Structures are given as structure tokens and as C-alpha cells.
User: Fold this.
Amino acid sequence: MKHYQNALVVLGLLFLGTLNAQKKFSPEELSSFKQDFRKHILKKMKKHNITGVSIAMEIENQLIMSEGFGFSDKSKNTKATKDTEYPIGSVSKIITSTAVLKLCTDGLVDLDEAYSHYVTDFAMKSHFGEDSKITIRHMLSHYAGLPRLRAKGFMKKEPEPLEHLLQNSKEEYLISPPGRVYQYSDWGVDLLALLVERVSGMPYEDYVEENIFKPLQMTHSYFGPAKNTKGYVREVETETYKYSHSGSDGVTSSAADMLKIARLYTKTGRKSARGFLSDAMVEDALQKQFTNAPLAFDTGIGLMWELLPLKTGHTRVKKAGVHEPFYSYIFFIPELDTSIVICSNSNSSSSIHWDSWGKLYAFMGKKYKASKNHQAEKPKVNYKKVTLSNEDFKKIEGTYSTSIGLLNFKRNGNAFDVDLKAENKKGVGVPYSNGLIKLYVKVMGVKIHAMDVFWKESEGEIIIGEQFESGTRHVMGSKIRTKTIPNSWKRAVGTYTVANYSDNDYQTIDKLQLFINSENVLEIQGSGKYPREMGIQLGLSPISEELAVIPGYNFDFFGGETVKLKKESDGTSSLYLSGYRFKRIDK
Assistant:
């Protein structure tokens, strides 16, 4: 009987192997898709005024495309190719995470050891009582409680040593205890680059060159500005900043080279890499991290990679990077050995990256029963209108500092009047079950459903976030904790300008206005001017005569950071925020 059972197992495995073999696309199918995909790219480039694009694509471990479209430099009539080099922005973070995982594979770093074990002179200030250690895993998955970045000095005309990060860190505050909430952090990744330096005994850039670029034959990858590729905004040549710290935003690469990085994490690719990264490291990198964190919700973050389960039972892995006006995206399905890398020199190109992924995924669906909806189905929840308790109304009422500006909720009967201050729109928030609030606004006199907001109380903090149609929830901000404004902050109301730019800084912000708004909330307004225009609207929770916190998470900049108010020796007031010193100029 045992031999009979073994024979059945062998036959079953052979049958499954046959089914898998049948799932392979034929050369004719792949050729037809390639031609159709080319037409798709040219159509999208024309629609979105895109000057140049390079694409590298594999399907089931077969190289299907590696070529360029349009121009890398229109003034010289230089065509884009598979080897055109682009600043890849935050895709540089994957180079850093891969370097850290290589050190782990080599037994030199432990993911769950404290960062300070390797970088002993690292220190940051904290408003939190517990002495929780920040681990390498926290930093790789953006759960370390570190700020987004130290904005002043992030963009530089010439490179600066990573060691500068340590002096900066000593002056700044954590935004949360580690392991509590996802906060995307360039700062954390640059600190990981410093870790690579300390552990390897080599400059970070040298370690990457010798241990990643050369072994993987990434001959068009290096640190610093692109040598021969120009950037464009709506086909007009546009300058970009030259440098930022190497770990988070410092790499220039090609689509063909970045495909070699993706291969390290695919099923067949990692086998052919002969242990470059251990199986354990790759599997860890592609597993969701900190899913039980108090404010995890549906973050879907691995070790630097963004993860999304698909209806087919597979996983979409993604990383995007922006170095204005350059855009780069990597998408892959590790179980199917299918990857696509899209790099562009045009800031209007984000849609072409998503459209290209959608085109590839729809094609894969012919064999793997994929859906046009790229996301796995979630159990449907029937939300019903509810009447909140007086206590819950009181908890929710107030002003929130969020990724879309300030939101004010004020009770009106069994609903809320909602003021979206950044957009100068007013709406109505209707409470539903499971902590949901449906937000409606009037546009040209017509009431429309604008978005679904959820709320949650966590450790005395009221969090709000966006709930998408799929049911996915993402944190976007938190409530201003107090409206009691100390006299020192009241006296500081006025206009401020940056007083500490160095010759090596790009001037990113000009002026800020500190004032008390109509809800008696201390607020900062201003605008970023380089490398793109960006409105700044921040609510402050004063916690002392000298300190205030910008509540909230997942902002482009400043979410959760601490603002310091200081009286200078000449009697003027200054605000210290994210490395900037703003000096008052209206008195």
C-alpha cells in the first residue's frame, strides 16, 4: 500500500508539472504581446507629453523587451535606449536594502538587532517614555518612528558625508515609538547606508560598487547625477537637483540594470544568482512586516518592497522613485518570474508606469485567471449608518493635521460639518459602522461622495485615514491634541524666512506664516518652491513654551516632526523645523 501511495504522489507531481508546463506562453503569444505593448507605449507617450522612456520586461523568466522610446536628450537628438541612465530617486532605497540583506546573508548583520549596536553614536530625542530599540527590521520597513526626512539640506549641489546624519539626528525628535506606525522615511534609509559603511569598513558607494553593481554586471549604474540624460517637464528641458544622500535617492541606473535587481527576488532569478542573497533573506523581504502594529492597517510593506496580494494568489511587488522630473518604477510577480521596469525623464509620466503594469498584468491573466482589478478581494463589510455616542462625537470633533491639509470636524446633529481647509471646500461627514465616516461635498451645487474616512483611538491619539473602495485603510493624519496655546507661541505669530541656507543648499522654501486660525489652532502656511511647487499647511500641537508637534503621519514632509521656538540673542524669534532655521522678519 505504501508503494502504491508513493506512486500516486509521483504521478500527481508529474501531472502538476505538465499543467505548469502548459501554462507557459507560446513564442507567438509573446511576440504578439510585445508588438501590442510597443504601440501602447508610443500612444501613452504622445498623450502625456513624455520625452523619453526605457523599459525592461521579463515574462516567465524570458526577456521580452529591453529598449528605449523617444529621446534621452532632445537637444542632441539622442535616442533613449535600454542602457539610458536615469536618476532613479527612491528606487535607490532598494539598492540600500539589498546591500543590508547582503550583509545579513554574509552573517555580519542581524535584522532584529538594534541599529545602535552597529552605529554606536546614533542618538535621537524622544517625547515617549519607553526606551524601545530601533532595529534594522524597523528601518527597512519604515516602522522605526523616524521623520520623513530632514528637509533642509536633503537636496545638495555637492555630496556630503553620511556621517553628517548623526549630528542632525541628535537635534531631532522621533515621531512615534518604533513598531507603532508606518512612516516612510528617507532619513531611515540613509542611516542604513551609514550602517553599511560601519559594518563593511568601506564607504557606502564603494561597497555597493564592489558587492552589487560589479557582481550583477550593472554597468550603467553609479552614484550622482545622470551623465547624458536630460529631464523634461511637458517636453521642456528642466534642471533637477544634483545630489541627495546616496542611500535614499542617490543612484543613477538603467532599466536593464534594474531588472537585474528584480531578478534577485524572483523564484528562478534568485536560484540563478547562486546565493547572492539567502533564501531566508529574500523570503523575509517579501513578507509583510509589523502586521500587528497598533496602526498597521493595510500598509503592505516588506523589507523596503511594497507588497499587494493578487486575486490569482500571487503577489505584486513594487517600488517607485521620483527625482523630479525623472520617474522610475519596478513591478514584479516573484512566483511567476515576471517583471517590468519603466524609467522616464518626464514628470508627466507616472500614468505610463501604471498603465504599463496594467497591460502586463492583463496579459498574464490570460493564463493565470487574473482580473482587471489588480487587488485581491477582501471580505465585503456591510456598513450601516449609525448614531455615535456623545462621547465618540466629542472624541472626533476637532482639527486634524493630515496628508491632504487641515480637516475640521464639527458636530451638527447626528453628523459632522467638515471643512477641508487646503481645498477651501466644506462638506458633511455621515457616521457609519466600523469607525467609518462617509464624506460628501458640494461641487457646483451638486452633492458628491468625496471619500471615506475612518477613525480610531490609539494610545490617547485620535487617528483618521482614508478607506478605499477595496476596503484598504491607510493612515493619513491625527487630531490636534490641544487648543490651549501658550503665550510664547501667541507672541511668536508672524512671518518667517529661512536664515541658514548654505552655499551647498538648494533653496527649497522661502517664507512661512505662523498664525492662529479660526478654530483657535496654531497653524503654519507656506510653499515649497524647488524642485516642484508644493503648498505647506501644518497644524501644531504645542506641548510646552518652546516645543510643538505636527501631529500625523505619512506626509510628504514634516508629519509628526517637532517644531522648536527660540528667542535669539538679538531678541528676534526663530522657528526650527526639519533642519531649517526660520527667522522672524515682520518685527
